Amino acid sequence: MSVNPGKILPYVDYVEAMRKPLLSPAMWKWDDIENQLYSSDSDRRHLVTLGHPELEEEASAVHDLAIVIQVIKPGEKSNLHRHGPWAIHFVVRGEGYTAINDEKYHWGFGDTVLTPAWTYHEHVNTSETEDAILYTFQNSPALSRSNNLFREEPAGLPPKHVLQKDDPNQSFQPEPPVTANNDVTNWK
Ligand SMILES: [Fe+2]
């Protein structure tokens, strides 16, 4: 195996390499987000991510942050899982709880919950009739860029490195949500 020689840069090149164009303002209208959340081509988890149009990484709202919006159907809960990014969840609709390390954090409209990095958690919609919607900020793009994005789902399986490209053994498919009785839910 040949040695891959590293670059040695003068200071001015280092400073120049750190210079990045400023992002333009961007806006995502709630009507568009909601339509996509409930559309047939939304992914089967009823989850969408906001991407800034000027960023190569289409799943990033700014360089280091992702915004994920997710519907949890009545009686549905996500799989118990954990991941490297922290997550800050804003509740914009419905009621339920997030269980973090076996502690239940009950939430309703306007509440904010922090899931720290690498902690087991699951989200549960306790309503029998109303959808819950969580608006989540995550530092996943920052971890992805440093090849340090890991996820364990469902809990108990070996953690997977999510974004190592071109390696079929490292691919990641999210598990479907389940009902409170642990039945896999009907997605649509
Ligand atoms: Fe999560």
Automatic annotation (TrEMBL):
UniProt keyword terms in alphabetical order: Dioxygenase, Oxidoreductase
One Pfam family this sequence matches: Cupin_2
Region Disordered, annotated ranges: 150-188
Residue ranges constituting the Cupin type-2 domain according to the UniProt record: 69-134
Membrane-traversing stretches: none
Gene3D superfamilies, sorted: Jelly Rolls (2.60.120.10)
Organism lineage string: Bacteria, Bacillati, Bacillota, Bacilli, Bacillales
InterPro entries in UniProt: Cupin_2, GDO-like, RmlC-like_jellyroll, RmlC_Cupin_sf
GO molecular function: dioxygenase activity
Protein name: Gentisate 1,2-dioxygenase
Species of provenance: Alteribacillus iranensis
